[in-house]
Amino acid sequence: MTDFGRPGRRLELATDESLAALKVRLHHFIVERLEEDGLMFEMERSELAPMVHKYMQAYLLEQREPVAGIDTGHLVRDLLDEMVGFGPLQPLLDDAEIDDILINGAHRIFVERGGRLEQVPLRFFNDQHILRVIRRMLAPLGRRIDEANPIVDARLADGSRINAIIPPLAVDGPCLSIRKFKRDALKAEDLLNGGALSPAMLSFLSRAVGSRCNLLISGATGAGKTTLLNVLSQFIGNRERVVTIEDAAELQLRNGHVVRLETRPPNSEGRGEVTPRELVKNALRMRPDRIVLGESRGAEVLDMLQAMNTGHQGSMSTVHANSARDALVRVEMMVTLSGFSATELLIKQIIATALDLIVQVSRLPDGRRLITHILEVEGIADGVIRTRELYAFAPERGDFMLVDQPSKRLLARLDEGAAR
């Protein structure tokens, strides 16, 4: 019996033009037959599969199409993907080893697997084919993409985050980026086993989170900021009320009292937007013990810093930056651009008193993601935010090292937290 199931199969699609054209003809023929019989919208994939196989065989026989060398089982699965799935993307979405899917036009599909990008032998028929798949993804979300709304950022039902941009803004055809949602979040042991940090660093960070230190996780795109935030959240006490704020809900906090908030983009009329800053302000009215901001990237950073300075200790956020020092510059810039009227020294003082630790994560050329630096924020001296490097990754040794001991102030706080 032919296997039409999804899990476990490794699909190798031929890129031959004749096969692509055959799929288009088969798709139109089978959809017409199913609609005539009133079956297409009444059957699940498993029930639809034998009907698709029957109609496909009928078409191939009727049209005398050459089928030598064609795997008809794979062909049926591809047709089912077009009808009830997301076309060429479906096997990639089903592959648990893939983290990101990147479509640069109809014939260039890339995936990130194990931290490395690679092109896969899949393709769309044309740009319209990509658009149909994007619109099928957006339809259940009540979102649309067209010339009037050529950019869409959204979250699928399974938690995966998608960004689509189409012509005229995308010059070479529709582009789609998918950051897949992992149902099973990584644990601290997974980071240790993967060499992302040392046992001493994990012990230190777990104590810091338990002692309600304010953390800023810094790194480039795809470096593993959200993954680390997820792992560190496991050390938050179960009796603490945590409010999370994200553009697309990705965090998977496991403690028992979590309120998840998600921003909302404007509708097609430009109304109804809910920004991260509005949600941070609202979160302060919800009696949180901690606030976890998925990403600081605008004016909301000021409200987050003020929350850290006014009793919401143990709050955490991430920021895009290439180094820990760059992260401080980015935060200072965002506060300045928020419209906050203050001297440069006062802004630095707010940042220095709010943040306790900066954790820098990086992705190495071989695809490994790891913590490269842990810095303590000590305060202001001579108009500069002073930091103390505690841990660092030594590339020449391929290992982590203790650079300096935490300050007496921080050690006292860690000891106090351990005693609670």
TrEMBL record:
InterPro entries the UniProt entry points to: P-loop_NTPase (IPR027417), T2SS/T4SS_dom (IPR001482), T4SS_GSP_E_ATPase (IPR050921)
A UniProt-annotated Pfam family: T2SSE
Domain Bacterial type II secretion system protein E span(s) in chain numbering: 85-359
Recorded family membership: Belongs to the GSP E family.
GO molecular function, one term: ATP hydrolysis activity
Species assigned in the record: Zobellella endophytica
SUPFAM superfamilies: P-loop containing nucleoside triphosphate hydrolases
Designated name of the protein: ATPase
